[in-house]
Amino acid sequence: MEEEEEAVPVRTLLANRHISPEMSSCFLDEEKFRQCCQLFLEHSDSLSDGWRWESVKDSHEGYLRKTALGTSRRRSNPDQISEREQQQTSSDPHQEKTSLSLQNNNDGIDDGALCCLREGSSGVVIQYEYHILYSNSYQTPVLYFRASTLDGKSLSLEDVWDSVHSNYRQRLQNGPWDTITQQEHPLLGQSFFVLHPCRTEEFMRPVMQAALEADRQVNYVVTWLSVVGPVVGLDVPLSYCTQVPAVPHCTFNSLHPAAVETSPD
Amino acid sequence: MAAVSRDKDSADQKLQFAPFSSALEAGFWHQLTQKKLNDYRLDESPKNIKGYYYNGDPVGLPTRLTLEFSAFEADGPSPARCCPVTGTLYNTNTLEAFKTSDKKALLEQQSKEIWEAIQSDAALKDPSLLCSFLLLTYADLKKYHYYYWFCFPALCFSEGIKILKQPVTLAEVFSPRQTSGLQAAYDRLCIDTGTSAVPYFLVKHSEAAVEVALLRHWDSFITDFNKVTVGVYDPCTLPQHPGWPLRNLLFLIASKWGPQLGVLEVLCFRDRTLQGTRNIQHSIVFQVKLPVLEQSDNTVCPKSVGWEKNPKGAMGPRMVNLSECMDPKRLAESSVDLNLKLMRWRLVPSLNLDKVTSTKCLLLGAGTLGCNVARTLMGWGVRRITFVDNAKISYSNPVRQHLYEFEDCLGGGKDKASAAVDRLGKIFPGVVAEGHVMSIPMPGHPVNFSAATVSQAQKDVEHLEKLITEHDVIFLLMDTRESRWLPTVIAASKRKLVINSALGFDTFVVMRHGLKKPKPCDATDSSPSISSSASSSSSTPAEPAHLPAASLFSNIPGHRLGCYFCNDVVAPGDSTRDRTLDQQCTVSRPGLAMIAGALAVELMVSILQHSEGGYAVASSSDDRMNEPPTSLGLVPHQIRGFLSRFDNVLPASLAFDKCTACSQVVLDSYEKDGFNFLSKVFNSSHSFLEDLTGLTQLHQETQNAEIWDMSDDESI
Ligand SMILES: [Zn+2]
């Protein structure tokens, strides 16, 4: 992963600058990541929010995964859809209808099937897939995502943006978490979009610091996801944040009263 | 939907089921590809796979049977609130086999299994046998085209199923207490059976209580055959129609208990959680009269249906082209493009990327500079890159010339121009690169030894002219000063943007040549490609330049900027007298070519972003504090770098009216006499050009040539 080599892990920078350890409260080790995920999943189950843990075969590794469906507003962009339709038509298997279709006419007619539902009649259905992985290099969670039509064809990032999340586009361009790249999923080897973690620490630090000063319990994964999720259309119900179970082991390392007095900069 | 039946007499209304829409996640195709490559290979035998349907969609989504990447692990877990469906995959090795496979037989075979499960009571014990699917696929792994056709077999009654009581929501027939009773009873059934969703069940409801039971407990649970309610875990969201899974259940009930049954009540159990609140009130309830099965239906498998229609509503397969997300070459292209777009989206919203990526670049020289320029151009997404070089790769080259490897030096060495093209294709298959192994005729290097050499030189000139015409930006990256002369003249005459770079030991120059105004006579065919508006100017050629202290001028417009030779007071062809930077690539500090090559491309990109392109006023070092003229910043005439000081300066200088390459008299001679003029330049000593341009006379007038040199300690 080129990106990971390029960027100096922020922790190293901090260490080199001899910044006190409590500054690193914005980082998450893998064990705490798992704990946060566990609590996150429990809440998801109670909401039927659809998150699940996927373990990778023959490995201790895994990730949180959720799928969601939506209808695209892509119809508002006639160019794209017609281009797509043309593509489908040009390499159309249906032209060979005679050889491919069922020979027996009777089999084609089915009184019992509701047939007036044409696909696309209510917009294009899009399947969204979100994965949360742990990055050892950055010591933060990383959000991978992709979107596809019902035939499994992935959308381009522009399609994704055009279709659903236009109200976040401005934010995505201007926000501090705006680093989307296309990368191979480290566990699956398939092409995904990634909200790159190189700036995660930047926006998480104030949040974690504030929580620390207010002596609030915070689930890192929840806090992080409620910032980055909406950017790519991922809805994070408020109750994840409001119903934080008081689990001390999910606070962050080296937090003791003395640390609170140290001002961040 | 309801419109179909509304005009019919309601007493005659027949029940219609919403068919499944197949839904394939991207990961499914990845996994199928892996299976085909690693496990199945040429094995076409049927494989067990698994899909699921989900209960809880918002209204408006089609009823789906979803296959994920995990579809190939037939006994893996299913997501919450999903009913697993077992299926059979028929993956053919050829498109022909896909086309000719007997769909009717496949359907009949699968239906027969369902029918037999009903006859043998196996389906009663395990009702999930009622719902299954077939998937016929052909994966063209060269094109990443996937052909597929789903079948969701359903056994058919010979006549339709009569609706006796139209569907209504559960909220209309159940009290809140009954509703919560049903929900609790269903959840208990799931817990008892250890699943997250029970697909089919029996219901008994009264004012006082709601009970549910598994299908296999029919005999003990059903006491009154005139009041039977069956429940189905229903993935459909339509208010008037059940989903597909109900269909075979009704056949089973008709087959087992049909003759004794009066009215059958159906409860389509729908279960949705919105913002943490669970609700089943949108479940629907209706009553039907099942047709009486014919005698034969219990001895011979009845007619069945189930092949999915394609998106056009016709009975036919589907095809999805996944080359964009699976073909490594396409992936490389889209990743490169995306990274550039992200740069624009994030940092430079006004960046015109197309202007950069569509630029056709001609690189004269494929040495240290050429290699670095090519790589930086690729970084910018430039797709058309052409090399001209006549050298072969030698042992000293690969460590500095980053497109070559040790192997390229063996056996006398490969031609740089073609090796560079090969390497670009390996780095990024989307590039359109060309290589031309040819030498560029030079002033003071005679070509008149024989008719053959003259004719070769003429061919080389014509070839170079053609290449320059066909490209938008010409990079001069050769290692001799003289070889830059001919392309400078041709490009100036053809009004092409020239980016020139040369290296010293620890100094370099990167510059754009002045772009002469469009010729008045041929505005029709050869308007310069690198100008925003060809109509922007009066048609007078460059005004005569005033010689002294040209570099101190500011606000020099692009058409009055000098070329590489403008600062010289000697014609090219005599290296011993040349005192400017040049000709020492192999002894320059190794980082220099990377710096200069990168700057050459970045200068080009900045020029392309300027609304006036090559006619843009030259920015100078003084402009560093001012509002930049382009989204990317300054557009200097020259960048002169001094590695010893780690410093760059941005001088600008006027075109010299006695320039041996770009002055009007040279261009006129070239345009009038063509190769005749050029061959005179090649064959003569440098004094020919000096005489022509008036340099000779100038020499006589001034003894101090030093002022034209750009020396290190000049303050700019
Ligand atoms: Zn000149």
Automatic annotation (TrEMBL), chain A:
A GO MF label: ubiquitin-like protein transferase activity
What residue spans carry the Polar residues bias annotation? 87-105
* Annotated spans, Disordered: 69-105
UniProt superkingdom:
Eukaryota
Q: Which Pfam families match?
A: Autophagy_act_C
**Gene Ontology process terms (BP):** autophagy
Q: What is this protein called?
A: Ubiquitin-like-conjugating enzyme ATG10
What is the scientific name of the source organism? Umbra pygmaea (Eastern mudminnow)
TrEMBL record, chain B:
Provide the THIF-type NAD/FAD binding fold domain boundaries: 343-613
What Pfam families does the record tag this protein with? ATG7_N, ThiF
Location (main, coarse): cytoplasm
Q: Where is the composition biased (Low complexity)?
A: 526-539
Keyword Cytoplasm among UniProt keywords? yes
- Top-level taxonomic group: Eukaryota
Instruction: Show the InterPro entries listed in the entry.
Output: Atg7_N, Atg7_N_1, Atg7_N_2, ThiF/MoeB/HesA, ThiF_NAD_FAD-bd, Ubiquitin-activating_enz
Where in or outside the cell is it found?
Cytoplasm; Preautophagosomal structure
Outline the segment boundaries, as ranges, of region: Disordered.
Answer: 518-544
* This protein's record includes keyword Aminoacyl-tRNA synthetase: no
Q: Which SUPFAM superfamilies match?
A: Activating enzymes of the ubiquitin-like proteins
> Which residue range or ranges hold the Ubiquitin-like modifier-activating enzyme Atg7 N-terminal domain?
15-326
UniProt record similarity statement: Belongs to the ATG7 family.
Protein name per UniProt: Ubiquitin-like modifier-activating enzyme ATG7
Organism equals Umbra pygmaea
